[in-house]
Amino acid sequence: MKNTAGSRRSPWSDGLGRTATRSAQVLFVLALGACIVFAMMQLKLIVVPVLIATVIAAAVSPVVNFLRRKGWPKALATWTALVTGIATLGVIIWLVGRGIRNGWDDLVESVGQGLDELQAFLASGPLGITEEQLGSARQAVQDLLGSDSVQRGAVAGATAAVEAIAGAFLGAVVLFFLLKDGRGIFQFLIQPLDGDARERAERIGDQSVGVLGGYVRGTALVALVDAVVIGVALVILGVPLALPLATIVFLGAFIPLIGATVAGSFAALIALVANGPVTALIVVAVVIAVNQLEGDLLAPVVIGKALSLHPLAILLALTAGTILAGIIGALLSVPIAAVTWAAIKEWRRPTDVAELESPPAAEQREPSGA
User: Fold this and answer.
1) pLDDT cut 70: percent of the chain above it
2) Pick from 98, 111, 331, 346: CA 20 to 30 A from residue 206's CA?
3) In angstroms, rounded to a whole number, what is the distance separating the alpha carbons of residues 317 and 255?
């Protein structure tokens, strides 16, 4: 008599069972990822400064390594790079503040005249908007600005400003230690690994630093070109606050695909209310031309090799980061996606192939203590 119990097939061995097992694994991985994202959002006051400091350290580390190769002590090279960066940022903020202070009165006067002309156009133009409707709209705006929700938003903004100051201080401290002993910190983190896994982790670390540094330096170069071209156009056209607007364009360009366009649209809006529709149209044309130059020439050449990401992947990462963390997510989502993809490719590459493609160890060796 046959043993039917031994020949009975497991319910997990057929096609449906294997599909169910794989689905359960996928759901577990997704749940784990969701928990990690939730924890990071709850600890954003720590996570965001650390991520920003890591990105900046990857971009600035070549300067520190260059100074150390010239014989500078490790601490002195780190302090020099850090203080130089902070001083440069302070000079930029001072120039922007000075430009706003010098051009604010002219901007207010020009905006007032532009709004009066816009109101007259709306009242007498083809739209047929009456004075009563304009007055109602103006009163609605005033009521909104004086509402409790706006006041609560102001309180929340003050709280966010305090958190931003604390985060900036923490980020500066983390940045100093990453620049001073980033290699040692990474070696400490991968101590549990050994053998092939440790070699892969070291290659992933080197590759990640290269991707982050190339992305930040390339984006900064593209942003500088955008800001200079648009800023010169604003100065020639006589648009108020040309320097602050150019600075906004520079900062906005760090958000891929849409940052420079949104910042340029803001400059066009200022030109509309301050200089009229003709000047605003010229500004729009300049912004479109700069975006075409960036998208067709600068970004593929300067940033494309560092990221190795398809534009659709950049768009999806940008959207997900914006939904999860707002403007900070928009800034960090693309470099995080690029590093993740580089890490996946490096981990899947066999060790013997990586050793054949990598330069000799003597060329990779950093100064003592790095």
Assistant:
1) 70
2) 331
3) 11
Domain ranges (residues) in the chain: 44-189, 197-360
Give me 206's structure tokens: 């080197």
The tens digit of pLDDT for each residue in 58-89 reads 888 888 888 888 888 888 888 888 888 888 87
| 323-353 b/e (C-beta count within 10 Å ≥ 16 → b) | eebeebbbbbbbbbbbbebbbeebeeeeeee
pTM of the model: 0.67
Tokens 């955008």, located at residue:
226
Sign of CA dihedral 92, 242, 319, 317: negative
Residue pLDDT, tens place only, 176-214: 888 888 888 888 888 888 878 888 888 888 888 888 888
Residue with tokens 């609605």: 140
DSSP 163-188: HHHHHHHHHHHHHHHHHHHHHHHHHH
Q: 40 in helix, strand or coil?
A: helix
Angle between helices 74-124 and 242-252 (to 10 degrees): 110
Rg (CA), the chain: 27
